[in-house]
Amino acid sequence: MLVRIIKLEVNYDNFQLRVENLQFSPKQVSVIIGPNGAGKSTLLRSLAGLTRLPPGSVFIDGRDLSAVKGGERAALVSYVPQEHTAALNFRVFDFILMGRSGYLGIFSTPSRSDYQKTEEVIAYLGLEALAGRKCLELSSGERRIVLIARALVQDSNLILLDEPTTFLDLKHEMEIISLLKKLAVDRGKTIITSLHSLDLIPRLADFLVMIKNGRILAAGETGEVFRSELLASLFDFPVRVVEAEGQPLLLR
Amino acid sequence: MIGLRRKSLKRKLLIVSAIFLPLLLLVFSLSLGTYAISLNKVLNIILAKLTGLQSALLSGPEANIILNIRLPRLLLALLAGAAFSVSGASLQSLFRNPLVNEYILGVSFGAGFGAAASLVLLSRTFPPQLLAFACGLMAVVLVLLVSEGARNTMIAVLLTGIIVSALFQALLSAIEFMASPYALQSLFFWLLGSFSQATWSDLMWSAPLIVVGLGLLLNLSWRLNVLSLSDDEARSLGLAVKRERILIICLATLITSAVVAIAGIIGWVGLIVPHAVRGLVGSDNRLVLPLSAGFGAGLMLLADDLIRIFSPYEFPVGILTNLVGIPFFLYLIKKSRASWS
Prior knowledge:
The complex is a heterodimer.
Chain A: E1 3-12, E2 15-24, E3 29-33, H1 40-47, E4 58-60, E5 63-64, H2 70-76, E6 77-80, H3 92-97, H4 112-125, H5 128-131, H6 140-153, E7 158-161, H7 170-187, E8 190-194, H8 201-204, E9 207-212, E10 215-221, H9 222-225, H10 228-235, E11 240-244, E12 247-251
Parallel strand pairs in A: 3-8, 3-9, 6-7, 7-8
Antiparallel strand pairs in A: 1-2, 1-4, 4-5, 9-10, 11-12
Helix pairs in contact in A: 4-6
Chain B: H1 2-5, H2 9-30, H3 39-51, H4 61-95, H5 107-121, H6 129-147, H7 153-178, H8 181-192, H9 200-219, H10 221-227, H11 231-236, H12 241-263, H13 269-281, H14 285-310, H15 317-335
């Protein structure tokens, strides 16, 4: 899943996101970082087709995303929102099953094959113990995994995630990070995610995008872009990247 | 894992009772009334009618009472209960708000005004369902437009619904003012909500609308599940959120208006029944919608039976549902206060 952005412009009340040219390679984990309000979520929502896209601005495997609608788009790209606030208290299994909705006609309900697909994903992620519980009973970490499960059931090759580790404790944070890595390596998924914890970047990101005030500050292989001066100018704060045990380490 | 797919015994029992409870109640209710008719006779008359056999029973007074007076009334009660409950359950999912129902959204009074205007200003032979639907839709659209973008949509929708209802009540009063004294009296009793005046010719228009609308909504149950998530989620899962939402609001308004046009304003059923059903089986609309239809139909019939048994005059069923529904609504508000901030 090659993702290309060409001259994308999205306008909100007082905010403008403009990306001249950006490309994400398939089967890699790409991470988007930047200060609050920089446009990370808007960029992700645009890649998910959730904002009004100018024609010819976002291409997924050569297809103009602005011309792809409904279920077809759902099969192309899935989107994991930052937080799920439910009005109704669904059973976890049924909630994950909702990932199949794009494949269903408006008057249909999930079929045997949709149930099978859901069971496969639940087994792959080892969520059997959660499947029978209610969504509102889940912890924050469990909820994130369930949201990712729903995206996997959707069966798209491109998965977008908005801050999937915010508010998680260390253990759950690491679980999500290794899962994302695994999805790219084992399952060939193209992962694009925004991330709050900078220290996780060297471990997770193949590709790094820095975004500030709605503009791309830098984008490239993590090894090239994850540098003190770029990070410092991104966050307007003096940070330093040093080497420790063969790994880049962030000091602030 | 397989256990998650298997339908539990409780679920099966509930489905079976949602189907048979209203039917049994219907047969029982047919025998009920000031003119007592034995269950045996009721069954024989229905059987004779259904099989098309010529029977002496069909020409008797009992057959006339059962087929032309009681049956249309009871069918209307069944359809009304199912329609209010399903439209309530659908709107609650759509608005992600357990307190919403067709009454709160102003649909009931909008449709009431439309039907009254049609009866008073247009010909009596013109079906009032049409204007009822148009005005019901106008009311709900007005509520949506005004409350859109509010920081607390839950409160905004409730407040706007009250105001829009008041607007249509005022318009109704204007219509009543214009009506002749004779028309005014029938208008007054109709507005209080009652099934007692139901005839086959009323049902001829409303019943097909209700049945088709109900059928479509029941088949939209999975979509309603997904639409209860955030807009972004529903859209990224492949739904055409705006279009599907409009379709569901139109269908819910259609079935509500079709009932209101001939039975008047009967509130709160769409709040009580889905709430009870969700308490029994959880939130999945694939189950909540059909069960609400069945139990709503049964409950409405039961309410009508109680009135026919205990009240010498035709006590309006709309007053009864208000007396039960409003305290229940207050209880729900109190209970859900935590999520209001």
